[in-house]
Design goal:
Length: 149
């Protein structure tokens, strides 16, 4: 394989964009933690909040790992470009492969975090559905009440 300096350079925009997305996820999660902390200190310390804290702590660790893998991918990509520059093609190819593996690990960790955040949102929605029926359920209840009259 003939690896030119342009090949690892193609990863730079992808890694930069994914790091920006990770930072946005972290900021959103940090805001959620602050809101949960306020709720925790002002309300009773029930089991639901403890489970949310446990999940948020795990998600924060995942985001940390996502960012660490992304940074390692970025660094190995830069080092790969250096080895291409000095003419050490075999070392550059190995470093490029490692960079891709770090990037894959980052994306895989991101997938796990997204699945967890989706489950958390589904849990919140199910809690609200118990108190407020969906529009379809509301119409069905109205229709059933009108038929009884």
């Amino acid at each position: 394989m003939n690896l030119s300096i342009n090949t690892p350079a193609l990863l730079f925009p992808a890694i930069s964009l994914i790091m920006l997305a990770y930072t946005n996820r972290f900021l959103a999660l940090a805001n959620l933690v602050r809101n949960l902390h306020a709720k925790y200190t002002s309300e009773s310390k029930n089991g639901v909040i403890h489970n949310q804290i446990k999940t948020l702590r795990y998600r924060l660790r995942l985001i940390n790992d996502m960012e660490a893998f992304g940074i390692c991918s970025f660094i190995t990509c830069i080092v790969c470009m250096f080895f291409i520059y000095i003419g050490k093609e075999l070392t550059a190819e190995v470093l490029f492969a490692i960079s891709l593996l770090f990037f894959i690990a980052s994306l895989f960790t991101s997938l796990i975090e997204i699945i967890l955040s989706t489950k958390a949102l589904e849990y919140e929605l199910s809690d609200m559905e118990l108190n407020n029926p969906s529009l379809v359920q509301y119409i069905k209840n109205k229709f059933d009440k009108e038929q009884i009259k």
